Amino acid sequence: MTTAPRPTLRLLPAAAARPDLLSPEESARLAAFRHEARRRGFVLGRTAARTLLAESLGCSPEAVPLAVGADGAPEVQGAPLHVSIAHAAGDLGGAAIASRAVGLDLEAIRQRRPDLWRRMLRPDEYAVLEALGGPTDETQTLLWSLKEAVLKGRRTGLRAGMHSVRLRQLAAGVGEGRDADGGAWRLGYERRGDLWVTWALAE
Hints:
This protein is α+β, with helices and mostly antiparallel strands. The chain is built from five helices and ten strands; from the N terminus they run βααβββββαααββββ. The strands form three sheets. A five-stranded antiparallel sheet has the order 6-10-9-8-7. A three-stranded antiparallel sheet has the order 1-5-4, covered by helices on one side. Strands 2-3 form a two-stranded antiparallel sheet.
């Protein structure tokens, strides 16, 4: 695998949430959420994105032109940067930024249905699963998270389906993937406690 740039990442624990940084539009979205975990996750993700982008753009976090695109994905208005936001159960939030399309996912390692791999992997990906040790909860969660990171980078989310992403050559925290249009993605992953942190960066 060739060396490729990494996105810039920021992960924040629940205590780092800064609701005072939200824009009026974000505050209105926050008020509409009924579940506390969803509210915490939203604030954490926006806090991570705003503080990270502020450092890159040279402005205050409140002044970051962070908006929501027509497809529902976050975007930076008037700047040549891409951003992806993720959170896990309100306990960890994160953001990734890059000069090209980027996707970030945080996924809790938990019990999965034993045959989940058959639903999300194409036959030509089975070797990737076997190389990771077979269909354990840990490996199935990792593969799910990597595919979701690519789908977030494509700004389709799960609407496009897991089979629209093909994974290959996963080893030592890096990998490669292809999307349904043949686009190449550089992948990265690391385990943090009971979570997988995964990212996808367009080649």
